[in-house]
């Protein structure tokens, strides 16, 4: 079973002009469960959403409050937080963050950019092409 370093995905997210703010990525690893050395676009989307969510959820209780969100995104309009709070209860859960990103295609451009050979999966060679393109290696 192959493990793809989460850090590389964080680096790529930072390099993309689509993502304006860049949380310093922790060195998590993700497991490529079927061992073919690639991640589907949906898996990558979930990783990006989760990384950003974990960065915003400073007290690690699985919910991002308006205050937590504001300290992570001081320059952004609170309307962006409210748009993520799909059930309007004042906090954003991971599920809400994922649904919002999916619905709005937040990471579509990043992921399309990552998928260098355009086969719907992010493989090691896609990673390498991306790193070269943005001179990250
Ligand atoms: Ca929290
Ligand atoms: Ca909510
Ligand atoms: Ca690919």
Write up this protein.
With 137 residues, the protein is of the alpha+beta class. The chain has one domain. It is built from 7 helices and 6 strands. It has helices at 6-15, 41-56, 66-72, 78-84, 94-104, 108-114, 124-133; strands at residues 2-5, 29-32, 38-40, 63-65, 91-93, 121-123. The strands form 3 sheets. The chain has a two-stranded antiparallel ribbon. Strands 3-6 form a two-stranded antiparallel ribbon. Helix 2 crosses helix 5 (94-104). One calcium ion is lined by residues 57, 59, 61, 63-65, 68.
Distinct ligands: calcium ion
Task: Give the biggest sheet.
Answer: 2 strands, antiparallel
List the secondary-structure elements in sequence, H or E.
EHEEHEHHEHHEH
- List how many beta strands DSSP finds: 6
Mean pLDDT: 79
Termini gap: 25 Å
Helical fraction? 40-55%
Number of helices: 7
Principal-axes shape call: elongated
State the strand order across the main sheet.
1-2
């Amino acid at each position: 079973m192959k493990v793809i370093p989460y850090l590389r995905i964080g680096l790529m997210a930072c390099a993309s002009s689509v993502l304006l703010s860049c949380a310093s990525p922790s060195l998590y690893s993700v497991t490529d469960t079927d061992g073919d050395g690639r991640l589907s676009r949906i898996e990558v989307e979930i990783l990006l959403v989760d990384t950003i969510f974990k960065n915003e959820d400073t007290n690690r209780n699985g919910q991002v409050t308006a205050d937590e969100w504001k300290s992570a995104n001081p320059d952004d309009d609170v309307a962006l937080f409210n748009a993520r709070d799909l059930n309007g209860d004042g906090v954003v859960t991971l599920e809400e963050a994922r649904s919002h990103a999916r619905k709005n295609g937040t990471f579509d451009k990043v992921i399309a950019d990552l998928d260098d050979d355009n086969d719907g999966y992010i493989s090691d060679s896609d990673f390498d092409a991306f790193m070269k393109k943005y001179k990250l290696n």
